[in-house]
Here is the input.
Amino acid sequence: MKRTAAALVLTTALTALAAPVAAQSQGDWTVGVGFGYLDPKSDNGTLAGAAASIDDDTRPIFTMEYFIRDNIGIELLAATPFEHDVTLAGLGNAGSVKHLPPTLSVNYHFATQSAWKPYVGLGLNYTTFFDEQSPLGNLEADDSFGISVQAGLDYQITDRGALRLNVRWFDIESDVTLNGAPIGTADIDPILVGISYVHSF
Here is the structure.
């Protein structure tokens, strides 16, 4: 009888260890604070008949996520304004622009038995451009709406805290005008590489 009871306890323990553990539970919240490196793709379209190039930038980023079910969360990404210089082939400096990229995503966090917890997400991005500056005149860039995809990896450092590394891609295009006249479309489609501390509640 004792051997049977011991075997039952051992089997139960092994089953518990083998069973998936929720990365996050329904009703949990997480808040993340870190830095994001935003790198537009290399070919940014043609503006005013010249090939455009948009440079990169690094800024603080913030996330908030609510878990609607175990391992499935709705996340909002925010940031301080990114600023990019714009150059045109053969003309040089064409100006600069600032933007904010709020993004709402649905993420799936994979349950693991280790401190490493990967996740993937699909979202919608709204990018608003402002404070456009140009030596050529009055530069304006239209806001953009598109999809975003991401993959990330959390490393649990405490019961409630984790370090997060993630990579996102954004579908961002903006129609550009100079002195009220259309001059083309900026194809930005950047990659955001982020590193953050994430705390769960």
User: Anything to note?
Assistant: The chain has one domain: 21-200.
